[in-house]
Write a structure and sequence with these properties.
Blueprint lengths: L9 E11 L2 H12 L5 E4 L3 E2 L4 E2 L2 H6 L6 E11 L5 E11 L6 E9 L3 H20 L9 H11 L2 E12 L6 E11 L1
Helix pairs in contact: 3-4
């Protein structure tokens, strides 16, 4: 770490689903499914650092050690109501100028399907970045309309999301969904 603090240079997206008769173990199983159960996860807010590279999960995991303190942006939802739909999503908006920061968003919901939850998280991240960049848009417009404005403006280069989705089974076992953006030193 430098005197100015730790600024991650790489990030990977992951997601997981866990089911168990108890809530806490369902969360642990979701962490295992996402392959991040062996780290001490510290939740941070939603800034995508300048010049940060998005890498695949396998590459990122190679550079992390069991017990390591790892910073992440995480979204999670748990429920045990039979038939209930759960979604947890991370949205990402990256600026055209790599020297500028972008945004990550966390969205978790009950009742939404995977696509709706993912689009919503992506929309949130893009809105936060657009407002920071001074891009004019109507916040009440649907995401497709805003996306067109953001792309025409040219200052937002990429948006994406990573979403975990599940439906609680008939037995009402606790189900946890989680999505995370994991920072790698």
């Amino acid at each position: 770490m430098s005197e100015t603090g730790f600024t991650p240079r790489r990030l990977f997206l992951t997601r997981g689903v866990g089911r168990h008769r108890e809530k806490l173990p369902s969360f642990e199983l979701a962490l295992r499914d996402a392959e991040i159960q062996k780290y001490n996860l510290v939740h941070v807010s939603s800034i995508f650092p300048p010049r940060c590279e998005i890498i695949d999960r396998e590459e990122g995991l190679k550079d992390l050690n069991a017990g390591q303190i790892v910073f992440c942006v995480m979204s999670r939802e748990s429920n045990n109501e039979p038939g209930r739909r759960l979604a947890a999503s991370i949205g990402l908006a990256i600026p055209q100028n790599v020297d500028y920061y972008g945004y990550l968003s966390e969205h978790h919901s009950l009742g939404q399907n995977e696509k709706v939850a993912g689009d919503y998280a992506e929309d949130l991240a893009a809105e936060m970045l657009a407002s920071t960049l001074g891009i004019e848009f109507n916040v009440d417009s649907n995401y497709d309309e805003k996306r067109d404005i953001f792309r025409m403006d040219g200052r937002i280069i990429n948006t994406q999301n990573s979403t975990a989705f599940a439906t609680v089974d008939e037995d009402g076992r606790w189900t946890t969904v989680l999505a995370a953006a994991v920072f790698v030193p």
